[in-house]
Amino acid sequence: MSEEKHHHFFHHKKDEDQPAGGEYGGGYSETVAAEVVTTGENEYEKYKKEEKEHKHKQHLGEAGALAAGAFALYEKHEAKKDPEHAHRHKITEEIAATAAVGAGGYAFHEHHEKKKDHKEAEEASGEKKHHHLFG
Predict the structure, then answer these.
(1) How far apart are CA 3 and CA 7, in angstroms?
(2) pLDDT one-digit tens code per residue, 85-111
(3) What one-character-per-residue DSSP string does 42-87 give?
């Protein structure tokens, strides 16, 4: 493989010293510094997007906890039903239960990240919604 493909993620500028049609056929060369381009999202939109991402991850964690918990219950049932391989089923049950706890913890973490981003989005928008009964 003497010919390698190169991917460059830099802005290019016209190079007068190189003949037209240089290495890539366009007569352009790379600049040393890359510019940072802003997308124009304001703070509120950024926090709302992060909140949506955390909500999605929270739901994935909840689904994982549910699936692992169901599998742990299935293995518990199999341990009773198949006494010859009961030890194997008990070990698998414990692993599944541990996975369920881990996935539940992940969902809990993402829930709190979602709440934090929701609060930051409210602060960035300038309006704070109060839902308190006494205060």
Answers:
(1) 13
(2) 999 999 999 999 999 999 999 999 999
(3) -HHHHHHHHHHHHHHHHHHHHHHHHHHHHHHHHHHHHHHH-GGGHH
